Amino acid sequence: xxxxxxxxxxxxxxxxxxxxxxxxxxxxxxxxxxxxxxxxxxxxxxxxxxxxxxxxxxxxxxxxxxxxxxxxxxxxxxxxxxxxxxxxxxxxxxxxxxxxxxxxxxxxxxxxxxxxxxxxxxxxxxxxxxxxxxxxxxxxxxxxxxxxxxxxxxxxxxxxxxxxxxxxxxxxxxxxxxxxxxxxxxxxxxxxxxxxxxxxxxxxxxxxxxxxxxxxxxxxxx
Length: 222
Known about the structure:
The structure is a single chain. This protein is of the alpha/beta class. It contains five helices and ten strands, in the order βββααβαββαββαββ. The chain has helices spanning about 40-50, 55-75, 90-95, 135-145, 180-190, and strands at about 10-15, 20-25, 30-35, 80-85, 100-105, 120-125, 145-155, 180, 195-200, 205. The longest helix has 17 residues, at about 55-75. It is globular, with a radius of gyration of 17 Å. The two termini are about 20 Å apart.
């Protein structure tokens, strides 16, 4: 029995198949995902990520925007985590010039696991969610890393119409294995009792409730 790699439910149905991959859809959380047998080997995946890390300007703008938003709500210095992609020295210097700190974790290029043992005021996830082979594990980790009241910014292309999947170029990158719809993030936010904002079709903001806002155990309805 196939289970969804995000919500772990078994309400998974066949969705689409092309010459390279077979895709499934979860009827519970609306995640679309590629068959694990088509995942690239780690060496090929790492090579493609090295090329992606060279494109810095969009990542820099993404981080700057998130820091600006967070510092409007918190006057004290912020400590953030850039998760899954590496920003260059100039981006880090710009954050530090504002009195804040940005640490970086990447499983291939900066795998400092001690950074996964603390919490952060904000977390940046720029073009990484689509690469998660086990999105349930990564989502649970990211939720645990976020301080109460903290923000997580997620940049990933959302599928707006199931009927358009066949021609959706986003699926053609073989490192992209998990595909999200608005309903997917609505499901996750509801389960975690997070505040959810769709700032754009490829920008999702979630805020962890402050300790005074927590009224139930987020796992109680899982």
